[in-house]
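Renewal narrative, Specific Aim 1. Our central claim is that a sequence can be written position by position from structural information alone. The example that follows is taken directly from our test logs and has not been curated for this report. It begins with the structure tokens describing the chain, in the order in which they were read.
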């Protein structure tokens, strides 16, 4: 019988995967709340379906003080020059390095295309990565970048990306 040597690093990595899975499972309701549909999609040439009735639900539990509150409303229109500042921030914060100059040509297929995404969705995703609420292998690089982006800059970038 052959035995394979396992480094302490490999054991620690496996333990962290097990632990992070348990943490993720405990916050599933929060994740589901953040990814719920926020609107309807219209395909050109097709009739819009009737909106589904909105069911009354119990209010969600308040988020801990350490986490930013999720954005619930549609983004306000950008102020004068807001789109330009979002474009400038996209470049100066190096977003283009991974997501492409047009925000639609990521350098790797697993990186998301950001152009035309909903501003509220983008804002929530960037805030979740920055706070650590969204935390997995693909967000590790983003977390370091988001540490240098303010909430106002997140909003400006998200609004600009939604106009592409």
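The sequence written for that structure reads:
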């Amino acid at each position: 019988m052959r035995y394979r040597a396992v480094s302490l690093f490999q054991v620690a990595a496996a333990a962290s995967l097990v632990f992070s899975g348990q943490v993720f499972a405990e916050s599933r309701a929060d994740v589901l709340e953040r990814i719920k549909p926020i609107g309807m999609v219209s395909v050109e040439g097709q009739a819009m379906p009737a909106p589904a009735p909105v069911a009354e639900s119990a209010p969600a539990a308040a988020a801990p003080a350490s986490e930013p509150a999720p954005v619930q409303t549609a983004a306000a229109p950008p102020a004068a020059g807001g789109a330009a500042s979002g474009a400038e921030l996209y470049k100066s914060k190096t977003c283009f390095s991974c997501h492409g100059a047009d925000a639609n040509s990521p350098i790797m297929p697993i990186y998301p295309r950001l152009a035309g995404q909903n501003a509220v969705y983008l804002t929530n995703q960037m805030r979740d990565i920055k706070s650590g609420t969204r935390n997995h292998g693909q967000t590790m690089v983003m977390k370091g970048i988001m540490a240098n982006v303010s909430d106002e800059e997140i909003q400006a970038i998200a609004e600009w990306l939604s106009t592409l």
